[in-house]
């Protein structure tokens, strides 16, 4: 053999300039892939590193809640709907309870509304902190996870202190919120509605949350790898987002200043001073940024609500057996994941005649086939993670 | 609680009702009463046209959801409607704007046994999955939908689970456990408690 060293070196440096013929390949991602946030399966048709057709396969977690609601009473249904988006279980209850209250024409006491608002915002912070933990992790940065989950645990502890549940509080009652110690007529007068020191501790926790937001911003926003992997990736134009029903932070990342907390009146958000953060380009980076800003806004709202929370009863007067009068209504709320709504049709019975559950993640990921066309395979994970969905919220 | 989101201005009789009348006139439908909700019923053959007008002229560019209701007095589970209702499948679709917070729920009545309607997929691409769901859950046929296959349910699933005639199968083989666990409140023993009124519940 007479190949000299120069030739060998030369050969190793020659890059392959010809177009390699790559066969099309079908790549199955999931249903048990850690980045799919549950059991989502993606059938991706890839050509080399680029995928040209992605079809999500959902339904692995379908629990038939809409059918189940037809055979349950109104108080029983709050238990079910806690489990739709379990990362922010508390926030799921609100629109359903409000829908039933509207049909019953109940006036909910101010204090109960404030407690609902504070806990909803705490659920939002917890949910967005999970996103801030998991999203950098999916891109290969493990450290933010510890900062975010540590703070989330504090928030969940407070939530648990009030409601008794970390994930599934089941705390709202039609007409108000659950009194702390039993509901017997003897204890009701003495019952303390919030645990001792809850408001002061929450105020402190919110200061900590604001601090950890700064830390997370330092950690993530200055990281070149994360910037390179998210800026300009997975851009959703606002008109496409709207046509697909993409809502919540994903819509605001595309530059649409629209927040249901500003335009609907299911909770008294109009009494507080807060802003709606929006992104510029609608890419993965903006979706991360908007959620971080929303944590800050929620902490601000909670602190203001604590300052101005009125005293008073926790429950409106409701009959023991709850029957909702005949009628129909749609109530939607700004959940951490986006627009969550319930179309409630009552025929005057103990349970709904029909309950349509509009969940945010379902519409948010229905844009995936459009969004993932032509992207690189590693970007699939970056884009999916940035949409922040929960499979319980997709499959219901 | 007042209800209309965007009309915070003057307390006119009911701003929501005015808006509902405007929408109904624009799309050629009629207003249906619903609490704090603008609901407009349109004829089935004007379904796609009405939604196109809503998107282009009324600025309702946000596709919220699409689903259906099975109206029937013959129910396998749950409570039947109190009064006699006309048997039909009512298709519902809510669209909204993304500036003032206006939203409209459109509805149309379809035949109970053979529900057919044109697909909205060309007006709102987001209707794709919602129509697939409505197809498998209610058996509504969407003409023009390119991929009407099961979304949630297994491929070989038979039946339309959200139809009122579809039984809750797990309750057929095993009674609802809550029926024996739950006792009524002491002072209302005479009253029928929710757990005994309906064996399905």
Portion in strands of chain A? 5-15%
Low-confidence stretches of chain B: 1-11, 188-201
Identify the strand order in the major beta sheet of chain A: 1-2-3
Round the mean pLDDT of chain A to the nearest integer and report it: 85
Helix-strand sequence of chain A:
HEEEHHHHHEEHHHHHHHEEEHHHH
At the third CATH level, what is the topology name of chain A? Cytochrome-c3 Hydrogenase, chain B
Using the 3D structure, state the CATH architecture of the largest domain in chain B.
2-Layer Sandwich
Tell me the β content of chain B. 15-25%
Total separate domains of chain B: 2
Provide the spatial order of strands within the biggest beta sheet of chain B: 1-2-5-4-3
Task: Find the CATH superfamily of the largest domain in chain B.
Answer: NADH:ubiquinone oxidoreductase Nqo5 subunit
Overall strand count of chain A: 8
Proportion of helical residues of chain B = 10-25%
Uncertain stretches of chain A? none
Q: How many distinct folded domains of chain A? A: 1
| Level-2 CATH architecture of chain A | Orthogonal Bundle
Give the CATH superfamily of chain A.
Cytochrome-c3 Hydrogenase, chain B
The secondary-structure element order of chain B is HEEHEEEEHEHHH
Notes on the protein architecture:
- The complex is a heterodimer of chains A (396) and B (201).
- Chain A is an alpha+beta fold and 396 residues long.
- Chain A has a single domain, classed as Cytochrome-c3 Hydrogenase, chain B.
- Chain A is built from 17 helices and eight strands.
- In chain A, the strands form three sheets. Chain A has a three-stranded antiparallel β-sheet. A three-stranded antiparallel β-sheet of chain A has the order 6-7-8.
- In chain A, a hairpin with a 2-residue loop joins strand 2 and strand 3.
- In chain A, helix 5 runs antiparallel to helix 13 and helix 13 packs parallel to helix 16.
- The radius of gyration of chain A is 24 Å and the shape is globular.
- The N and C termini of chain A lie far apart (68 Å).
- The N terminus and C terminus of chain B are likely disordered.
- Chain B folds into two domains: 153 residues, NADH:ubiquinone oxidoreductase Nqo5 subunit (Beta Polymerase, domain 2), CATH 3.30.460; 31 residues, no CATH class.
- With 201 residues, chain B is of the alpha/beta class.
- In chain B, strand 1 and strand 2 form a beta hairpin.
- The two termini of chain B are 31 Å apart.
- Helices cover 24% and strands 20% of the residues of chain B.
- Chain B is globular, with a radius of gyration of 20 Å.
- At the A-B interface, helix 2, helix 4, helix 10, helix 12 and strand 6 of A face strand 3 and helix 3 of B.
């Amino acid at each position: 053999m007479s190949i000299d060293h120069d030739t060998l070196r030369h050969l190793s440096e020659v890059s392959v300039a010809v177009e390699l013929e790559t066969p099309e390949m079908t790549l199955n991602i999931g249903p048990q892939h850690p980045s799919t946030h549950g059991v989502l399966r993606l059938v991706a048709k890839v050509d080399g590193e680029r995928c040209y057709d992605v079809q999500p396969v959902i339904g692995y977690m379908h629990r038939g809640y809409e059918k189940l609601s037809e055979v349950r009473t109104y108080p029983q249904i709050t238990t079910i709907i806690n489990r739709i988006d379990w990362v922010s279980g508390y926030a799921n209850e609100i629109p359903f309870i409000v829908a039933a209250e509207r049909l019953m024409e109940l006036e909910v006491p101010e204090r109960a509304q404030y407690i609902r608002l504070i806990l909803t915002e705490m659920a939002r912070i917890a949910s967005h902190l999970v996103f801030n933990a998991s999203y950098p992790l999916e891109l290969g940065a493990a450290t933010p996870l510890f900062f975010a989950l540590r703070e989330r645990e504090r928030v969940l502890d407070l939530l648990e202190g009030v409601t008794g549940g970390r994930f599934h509080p089941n705390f709202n009652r039609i007409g108000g919120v659950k009194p702390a110690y039993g509901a017997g007529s003897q204890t009701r007068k003495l019952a303390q509605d919030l645990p001792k020191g809850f408001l002061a501790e929450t105020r402190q926790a919110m200061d900590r949350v604001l601090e950890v937001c700064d830390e997370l911003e330092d950690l993530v926003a200055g990281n070149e790898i994360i910037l390179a992997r998210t800026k300009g990736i997975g851009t959703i134009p606002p008109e496409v987002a709207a046509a697909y029903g993409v809502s919540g932070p994903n819509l605001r990342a595309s530059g649409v200043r629209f927040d249901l907390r500003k335009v609907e009146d299911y909770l008294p958000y109009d009494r507080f001073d807060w802003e709606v953060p929006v992104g510029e380009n609608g890419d993965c980076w903006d979706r991360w940024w908007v959620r971080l800003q929303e944590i800050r806004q929620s902490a601000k709202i909670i602190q203001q609500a604590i300052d101005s929370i009125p005293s008073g009863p926790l429950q409106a007067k409701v009959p023991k057996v709850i029957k909702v009068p005949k009628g129909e209504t749609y109530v939607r709320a700004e959940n951490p994941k986006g627009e969550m709504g319930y179309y409630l049709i009552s025929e005057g019975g103990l349970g709904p005649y029909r309950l349509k559950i509009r969940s945010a993640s379902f519409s948010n990921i229905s844009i995936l086939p459009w969004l993932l066309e032509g992207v690189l395979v590693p970007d699939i994970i970056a884009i999916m993670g940035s949409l922040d969905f929960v499979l319980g919220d997709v499959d219901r | 609680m007042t209800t209309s989101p965007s009309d915070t201005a003057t307390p006119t009789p009911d701003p929501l009702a005015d808006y509902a009348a405007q929408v109904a006139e624009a799309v050629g439908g009629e207003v249906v009463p619903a609490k704090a909700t603008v609901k407009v019923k349109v004829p089935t053959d004007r379904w796609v046209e009405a939604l196109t007008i809503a998107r282009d002229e009324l600025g309702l560019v946000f596709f919220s959801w699409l689903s259906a209701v099975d109206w029937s007095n013959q129910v396998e589970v749950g409570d039947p409607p109190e009064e006699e209702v006309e048997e039909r499948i009512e298709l519902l679709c809510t669209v909204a704007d993304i500036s003032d917070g206006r939203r409209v729920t459109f509805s149309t009545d379809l035949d109970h046994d053979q529900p057919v309607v044109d697909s909205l997929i060309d007006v709102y691409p987001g209707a794709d999955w919602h129509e697939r769901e409505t197809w498998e859950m209610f058996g509504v046929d969407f003409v023009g939908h390119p991929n009407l296959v099961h979304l949630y349910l297994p491929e070989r699933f038979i039946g339309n689970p959200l139809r009122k005639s579809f039984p809750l199968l797990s309750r057929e083989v095993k009674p609802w456990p809550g029926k024996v666990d739950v006792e009524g409140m002491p002072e209302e023993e005479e009253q029928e408690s929710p757990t005994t009124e309906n064996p399905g519940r």
